[in-house]
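Worked example 4.2. Below are the chains of a multi-component assembly; read each line carefully before continuing.
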Amino acid sequence: MDKLSLRRALYEDPRSVSAEALQDEPQLQQLQQELQALDDSLRQQLAIEVPPQLVERALLNQRMLPMQKRWYQRPLPYATAAALLVTVLYWQQPLQNRPADLGQHALSHVYHEMAALRAEALLSPADISPMFSQLGIHADFPVPVRYARFCDFDGVRSLHLVLDVDGEAVTLFVVPDTGQPGLIEPGQLKPAQFADARFFGQSVTKLQHRLVLVAEQPQLLATTSAMLEKSLHFNI
Amino acid sequence: MSHAQQRYEALVRAYTPDLYRYAYWLCHSKSIAEDLVQDTLLRAWKNLSQLQEAKAAKAWLLTILRHENARRFERKQFEYSDVEQDSLEDPHQSPEHGVATDRLHRLILELPQDYREPLVMQLLLGMTGDEIATVLQLNLNTVNTRLFRGRAQLRARLQPEAAGEPAHG
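Applying the procedure described above to all two chains together yields the following structure tokens:
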């Protein structure tokens, strides 16, 4: 192997070239040492820390898979689920005529921040209250809150929360009415429902705010909606 | 426990850390990497019968993960921008925060993906040139060229005086 080929082989994999092959090439020996040291440093950097419980979560997801598929077979919430599905179908037609709608945006937002659904740390009322205060709302949730931060919702600075309702993640967007045309039309009062293959959602208007809920099980929307009626007090 | 379940658990326990690390260097985000790993493993479970030999498991899983990553970009582009969080401390600060502080870490992230991917496979996953070529669907010469250029770029940026040294590849 000529010198150029050896140099190339060293850059491709420094370990692939034997000491004998470099016996009369002190410069290439030096290069091999440098590249091996570089590889060692790279290996250390590449081996980033793996989140704890990642393996267990993966196994749990797989074990829960059949249950998730059969949510509609659970005995209790037939009436709620059926009613919501009918309403979704009823509202689907006008929504489909719009290039982008609130439901689609809410679902995209949830997919964009899927990690929020799995947030494990629970936030205290002291964490949450100041955020709601900025929107003129007093909040007193009877359920744990997994995630809360201000987000961009169709250009409107909104509050994005993930509530823990009966052990399941329910996303809540609190979107102030800016009076500007957008996904949420000013003064829009009608409730709206939406869904895709995985999530169900609904939105309602409360004074100057639109509340958008997204959950994997439709019955959670009704449960959470009823809970919000009691736990959110709107000052504006 | 069924035989399939046993096989799946063995697969998850053996490869999840490598999949997560590979996913991170593919997408530059720890949260997206975690989602990619979960999606990859669920798809692997659904298609477990396709995996015939244990020695093919790593390449098979990496191929699924790369497809899952590609699917991310097929989804409708979601317009999103960060908004001001005022003086409130974000209770769930981004896991990326504070990661990219090391110079070498940053240089790896700045490396073109065509060069970074085979290097990650070789150094992190211990894969041979042929195995990398199979997963990336490239020929061996192209893989070797990318390994050459990846290392050369990193070395040049770490040692500017050596920047002009490799003149081949």
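Take a moment to check your reading of the output against the notes. Chain B touches chain A through 56 residues (CB under 8 Å). Residues 102-160 of chain B form a domain with the Arc Repressor Mutant, subunit A fold (CATH 1.10.10.10).
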